[in-house]
Amino acid sequence: MGNNKKFxxxxxxxxxxxxxxxxxxxxxxxxxxxIILFFIILGVVGLFFAGGVxxxxxxxxxxxxxxxxxxxxxxxxxxxxxxxxxxxxDENYLGKIQSDIYREEVPLDQMSKHLKNAVIATExxxxxxxxxxxxxxxxxxxxxxxxxxxxxxxxxxxxxxLVKNQILTNExxxxxxxxxxxxxxxxxxxxxxxxxxxxxxxIVPFGRNANGQNIAGVQSAAEGIFGVSAKDLSIPxxxxxxxxxxxxxxxxxxxxxxxxxxxxxLQPGINRMKEVIQRMYETEAITKEQYxxxxxxxxxxxxxxxxxxxxxxxxFLTDEIHRRAKDIIIKQLVKKxxxxxxxxxxxxxxxxxxxxxxERKLSTGGFKxxxxxxxxxxxxxxxxxxxxxxxxxNKTITVTDPETGEQVQKVILAQVGSTxxxxxxxxxxxxxxxxxxxxxxxxxxxxxPRSIGSTMKPLAVYGPAIDMGRLQPGSVLADVPYxxxxxxxxxxxxxxxxxxxxxxxxxxxxxxxxxxxKAYMKIIDENPAKHYLEKMGITTLSEEHYTNPSLAxxxxxxxxxxNTNAYATFGNMGTFVDAYMIDxxxxxxxxxxxxxxxxxxxxxxxQAAYLTIDMMRDVLQYGTAAGLKGQLTNPGVxxxxxxxxxxxxxxTWFVATNPNVTVSMWMGYDxxxxxxxxxxxxxxxxxxxxxxxxxxSEIRPELMVPDSGFQxxxxxxxxxxxxxxxxxxxxxxxxVGLAKSDLYIAEYAPTKVDDSLISGNFVRxxxxxxxxxxxxxxxFVIDEGGVTLSPEFxxxxxxxxxxxxxxxxxxxxxxxxxxxxxxxSLSTSSSIENDGKSPAAPSSVSVSSSTISWSASSSNDVxxxxxxxxxxxxxxxxVIGSTTETSFNFSGGDGIYAVRAVDYFGQSSGNSSTVKxxxxxxxxxxxxxxxxxxxxxxxxxxxxxxxxxxxEQTSAEEESGSTNESEEDNNSNEETSSEQEAAETENSxxxxxxxxxxxEE
Length: 1001
Fold this sequence. Notes:
It is built from 34 helices and 34 strands. By secondary structure, the protein is of the alpha+beta class. β4 (about 205-210) and β5 form a beta hairpin. The longest helix is centred in the first third of the chain and has 43 residues, at about 20-60.
């Protein structure tokens, strides 16, 4: 081995001495260097090539990105998706509009320094020094992406994240990343670091708040998570919030229902908070002492409590304002873009596009929405509604379960709707939408149309007819059987009866249907629905309603607020002011986006409005709402209103106006249930109306209790009219008590004197008053010189059908003094025909004390009865009195008494059965004056012709021994008739035929 080493050494020495080694080394060096140089050159060329390719690729990615100006970038960056806010009428904050995400803007100087430090330390450590992009961070992110590393740290600066959220999209692509970097560089060129940081902190999402709502921006996060302002965040609170953007919904402490997560589910967020605190310490943003203290922070103990959001406290109101505000924004956008609402109506896709745009602007545009709603009024309305205990009972109905398709039982509440509108401005001060939002979300004040029943009568019938001069309060309408024009369908009143000739005023107060339809038919061809209802803001009418007579009775369905608004037209003395709820919408920059402009339309003349109001006053005086004023704490307020019940009793209404305000009230069930089995449902509804008015009058007397009532305008006069025709009252009309007084528009006041009445002698036949005939005994004339309706008047007004005549004359008050003429006066034949027979005698005669009673004669033409007396059994009968009733008060003492019926033609029946009073025939202590002897039936004159006798009558006469005729008796007919008349006069105080006037309803 040693020899080998020696050999090797010697060999190397020999090679070195000969220069062979040096030569070979130089060659190897040259070769190696050349190889290395080659690769260096190749690498440099490769780098330039790669850089060129990369630059070219980068350029290709951003080639379509426009070069944005500073103004464009500023508009985009500061276009925060801030949630719109709602305010009551006095600038009181109501709450935020319902949104997918809640955000509130706050300036940088109103943010905690700990929060700013925490975000920078966590999200962008080089934020204060970079120019928008950190190259090594980008390279790191690219390598992680290429190698599909398990942990990706991200390469975006705060500037890039701001660009991604506000200018670009969240799309994951190299193109978006390239554009993001390019724009970030330009943002850093034009914006200060403080501006960039402020924008970022106002747009970044932070998970959920204590109500379970999605939130963005540090102010919403601070308030929603810890219940403090962003400027008051502590170090650990700031660290927790700063850590959320990495994974907002994984780290958020709240579930989507607002509940706090479990301890295990909270741990990722707590760990992230501690990581942020560590970074804050490493960057010397906090001291070691602050660091250690922050690590001991108890998250759960510092979380915010759930709050009552506007939607939770005012669900109906928030929804309504949201809906109205969106409609306004759509109209503003349509106008700005040069489209029309008609375009949207014809194009569903275009309408949906605008709907989405408006919804987005509303929920993220940061609008300040100012409403007309008076918070105290609204709150009181809900309190009264909730405390009322006379609602119709709950009903159980069968419905189909939408999930299973099975039939199930469901309990539904009687619902309620009310609107309070200030007349002069149209401001909706408050409303009641329903009983319980959880059970039924439909707003019964502003959304669901309901049939309005008789509340339509002033709007479509009486108001327009008065305004046109076709009707006045004193106009007379016949409430008698009537059919809709061109049909066989009867118009029926609520109580199914009829009330005869009534004034328009009385018909409205009592809510009679037949007069309303008749009045409507006077004007239907002039299209009152078009020229009046539409002008009063009623939008739910169809073409069918314009020509349907049943519109007069409220067959159309109207929204509660529209019905109330229409009644406010009367409160404004005929001028319609469109009601509204949103006064103005202001952008987050303070610019007015929308301002309500009051629109008014003259619908009725002041005179017509006042007369309609005056008629509706009577609804509360003696009409269908009589007694309501007695429930008011301020009964002197000048209210005018109308009740209403819809077909099938599904709805009950009351709407009333005073000079300041109009208030409505509706009750009913959803799902077509009715109030049929609810006692006094109208009274329940008006009682709630009274409770609302009383409560509002206490807190807003300046609104609810005007200083004075409605003032009568010029051009109105008072006239006396006859209740039969509506013409000026004649002396005859006044004499029977049918002269009434009412108000008229001067140019439409009556000028012609009534001629509907004629006078004469009248008798009652089967409860019907008819003119006395030539042979009718005058003793049975009820009113000598009595009054009937003129046959000509009846024919001219088409009252001559028997169905009409049966109901034409009301059964009340002074109408008892007026009769219908006999049918013979209206036609060639008389309905009281002379059958040539004597009437049947009365039956069942009895006596009690000093009153004789009997059953009426069965004959149909009897006008009265004569009462006879014989002093002793077998004695002669003499007439002692007559009556039109079936009883007679007498003072004739002991005797035998009998009764005879007398017919229209003067014929008399035979004697009834007799009754004995006392002990007739017993000798008296003193002789009595001999009574005039009444002729027997067979001895009476032609007007009292011979009658057939009953067995009892024959027996009585035989007992009296008066069966023989005498010439003297035959010659005394005229004298006897005179004595009968005298007896009637003498005994008139003893009859029961005195008519007393009954008061009107």
